[in-house]
Each structure stands twice: as C-alpha cells, then as structure tokens.
Amino acid sequence: MTDEKPKNLPLRALRWLIYGQPLATQQYDLMCLRKLLALPVFCSDAISSVAYGPQQIVLTLCLAGLWAPQYSEIFNHHISLIASLIVLVLLLVAISYWQTIFAYPGGGGSYIVTKDNLGTWPGLIAAAALLIDYVLCVSVSIASGIQNLKDMPLLSGLHIENHLVFFCIAGIALITWLNLRGLRTPGLLFAIPVYTFIVMAYIMLIIGLGSDFFGWTLHKEYINQIVPHHIETNLAHTLTGVIGPIGLAVLLRAFATGCSALTGIECVSNGIPAFKEPRPKNAALTLIYMAIILGTIFTGVSMLCSKLHIVYWEHDGISAAAIIDQISGAVFSKNGSFSFLYNLTQFATASILFVAAQTAFADFPRVASILAKDGFMPRQLTQLGDRLAFDNGIMALGVLSTIFIVAKKGSVDLLIPFFTIGVFLAFTMSQTGMVRHWLKRKGNNWQLKLLINGIGALATFIVLIDIVIEKFLDGAWLVLVLIAILLFLFHTISSHYKNLALKLTITPESLSNIPHKNTVLVLVQGVHAGTVKSIDYARSLCNNCQAIYVETNPDNTADLKEKWQQYFPDMPLVVLPSPYRSLIQPIMCYLDEFHKEHPDQTITVVIGEFVPNKWWQSLLHGNTGLLLKLAFLARNDVIVTDVRYSV
Question: What residues contact 352, with CB distance under 8 A and at least 6 apart?
Fold first, then answer.
C-alpha cells in the first residue's frame, strides 16, 4: 500500500462530471433496451416531426396565398390530400423496413443493406446522405423545440424569440452531455417526455376534433387568422419565383416539405443491436408502434389545421406561433382554467423535440463507427468511451449541428429546406438494395417480399425526385454538394489506410534494411539529479552515448562543462552554439549532419522532463521537454524517448 495521492485530480473530477462512472466492456449487453425504452430513444425523431411536418405544409399553402378566407375550401382540400399521401408513404416505408429488420437482424441500416447488395460506392452514398440527415435532424429538432416555447405566456420574460441561437446551442450542449453519459441514462430520462407528449397529443386531438360533440369551446383568438400586411407585401414579391402558379406546383412543394415528417423511420432498423433479445422481433414491433403513433397524430394535426384554418408564416427571421402552439392554445386556452394543459402540451412538445435529437445521437455515432471499421472514416470513431458510448461521434455530431444552427440563426423554416433529401436518398437506396437481396437470396415468399420492397423503393424515389426539384434552390443543392465532399473524404481516408497497411507489411527487403547500430543522444539543460536519471537510462540502451547541450547563454557553459567532467567524465558532451537563443533549430541541424555522416545508424534521442507534484506547478516551468517532443513529431528518422523525473 502507498499513501501517494492520485495525480490530476481536477482532470479526473471533470471527466467524472462529464462522463460519469466508467463501465466495464462486459456491461455492454446490459445497456440494451426493452421496447418501452427503445421507443423514445429510436422513435422520438419520427414522432416529434408532427410538430414541423404539418407546419411546413401550412407554410407552403400560406405562401401561395391560400391563407385568405375565400380560399378555405382549397386550403382544406390540399391539406387533406397531402396528409393522406404522406401517411401512405409512411405505411409503405414502415412495411419495407419491417422486412429489412428480419433480413438484417444485426442492424439493417441503409449503408449495410446498400453496400451488401449494390456495392461499396452506392453504400457510401447512402451513408453520406444519412450522416448529413442526422446532423440536420439535431438542428431542426432543437430549433423546433425552442420555437414551441417562444410564444408561451409563462416564458415571455425570457424573450426567447430574441435569443433563438443561444437557446438552441444550450439545448444541443445538454443533449450531447447526456449522450456522453451512456445509452441507458437518456433512455430512462427521455421516456417521460416522449410518452407525455403522446398522451397530451391524443387528448388535444380528441377534444379538438370532437369539440362539437363534447360541447367544448375552442379559443380561436389564439389562432393566427391573417398574415401581417408588411410581411404579406414582402412575400408577394417572391411568391412567383418560389411557388409558381397555384395548383400542382403548390401541391408538389407542400408534399415535399411535409415529408420532413417521415425522417427517422430507418433508425429502428439501424439500431437493432441496442434492443433486448429477441432483437429483431422487438425492433419490428417498435417500428409498428411508431408508425401507428406517427400516422394517427400526423393525420389528427392536419385535420385540426384544416378545421381551424390555421395560418402560419415566416419571413426574415420572424414567424407566427408554431402550429402545435396554436392548436393547443385553441383547445386548452393559454390563460383559462385549463391553461395548465396548454403549458403541459407545449413543454411536452419541446421536450420530445429535444429527445428527437437523441435518435440522431443514437445512430450517427453507430453509422460512423461502422464506416470507420470499414476504413472510410477515422478509426477513433470506433472507440467506446467510459460509458460505452461512441464519444467521438457524439461530440462530432454536437459540433456539426451547432454550425447549422448558427448559420441559419436557429430558424426551423430556414433549416427545413436542407432536411429530408438525405433520408429519402437513403430510403431509396436501401429499398433498392432489398430488391436485389431477394433476387439473390430468394427464400420463402420471396416474390411477395420483392414486390413490397420494390413498391417502397419506387415510392421513396418519386418523393426524392419531388424533394430535389422543389427544394433545390432553397438548399437541397448544398446537401448534394456535402454528399459529394463526404464521398471524396471517404475515398481519401480509405486510400490512406490501404497505403498505410501496405507500407506496414513485412517484406524481405524491410528485414534486410534493419540497422544494427544505435547511437543515443541525451538532451541536457544542466547537471542535476534528473540528468543522472536520463544518463543512466541512455547507458542501459547501448554504450555509444552522447550528451547534447544547446548553448543559449554562453555565460553558463563553462560552469556546466566543469560539472560535467566531475560527474560524467566518460560521456562526450557536445555543445551546440545558438547565437539567436533557439533551442530546437541547432538540435535539428546536428541530427541532419549526424545522419549524413552515419547513415547506417539508428538515433535515439532521450529527453528528460520534470513531473511536478501538483498539476498547477507545471505552469511555473518552461515545459521544454513538451516543446522538444512536439518538434520531433515532424521527424521520422529518430526514436524519441521521454525520461520523466518526479520532483
């Protein structure tokens, strides 16, 4: 036993605060989730999209001028038609991924399915699309969550609308920290807001749609009925270029923006390894539960938008109240006796949108780790942290999503045009891969399975084309550019790892070129106990040792030489003049000359370094050893050894 106190206590305390108590690798299987916790972790993205999916449909219709009362019949017809088409696509995608789950019980993400059936590069295209969409999922979800809080009377004192970016960044930081502490913690923590939102959404929809039957008074004073005149005027100037003639163009654009409600469906099939056994069955049931909840709430919200003729607009960073805020305000009232239900609904909406980012935080690091294992991303992304989470992937996602928030000033409506194209590209490639899978593997009822996945591939491809056309000028072009950049990075990283593996391969030539002589150079700054330790270590390596002293102050040289002869008379001391007081340059020049004179020798450089007792004491020293080690990183012709001396 020893009474020595552990070093770096402040760093350990900070690490514990961020990550929590470390978990053993053997506990990884214990972190897998039951369906009750898996649904909020993997399905919150899809379910929460009802907060901005229908809202984007209404925004498009209002941009087309259909907010006016005389167009109410067209407004209602368009909402009903678009909602029905989106629910149909939801049904097709859910059934298709049901088959993917059982065909790939180890995790059937788009990258794995596409790569397995269509080849490496198609798989990488799907992976790049998914990674970008996960980043945007975090940005959009957090921004939408903050938007659903900004018009609450209870929070009016915070002036959220004036500080959207700050609140969004704070939300991303919080969700990142929770994920760094491991999967189970967010699973338990996020279950309550997700299920609270589901319950309150159904209560709101039942009362709102059945208000005539229940005799419930709807408070329409909380609904936006008009577009402010100055905003209407500004919109009129851009209406023709953005929307075109009212009719099919409006319908297609509203459908494209409304399909943002379908993001996150794939996350269940991609996260199968995180489920309890039997994993495929539990994942498939969770997928069905998610589809039912998403489809019914999306339909209900769309019907209430039609019934209440909700108006939504956004221009130049200014927007109307979120549609969930308008609906819950109309159903429960913001200031009446049931206002607590309104507040609960809005907090639950914001909470599930924050939790929705968890879907991306659960899958982005997992997809990135798979790509890293295949050699297409940095290998650091495969490493599990203290809490058995992919820390590097989690932090990368937090940083990237923050960049989008800052760039688009925390506006949901400015972020949405970048959204969905990636996920529908991944949908299409995954389902096309499944068609190829059934053609190759066949099996029981393979013709029916092929037909289902074929219909799913065709449906998502049609949606993808619509999204690309309708959103291209609004930001879809940038997503396509980012996908191309990621593909270039994948190729570059893969080439590096392949070249590295080739260079590390042992060949007869590499064996014959191993030098058999070694010279040890000890860098010294003075004669003291630390120098003795460095010299002793150098002599243990070989007999051919030299000491190197850089003369930055000639006045000290004579004294050092005298002490050197007294304590180390049998070791040569080389004094390198440094008229400009540079420490590193003379050493580098000496090494270059030594290599020219002795090309057959291996050079080992020994650097002595003080290790203070307290962490703060390192601030009182020059840390020369650290500077020297950093300088030697640029050289591959020497071996550097650090001899640490505790003081």
Answer: 44, 47, 48, 51, 193, 194, 197
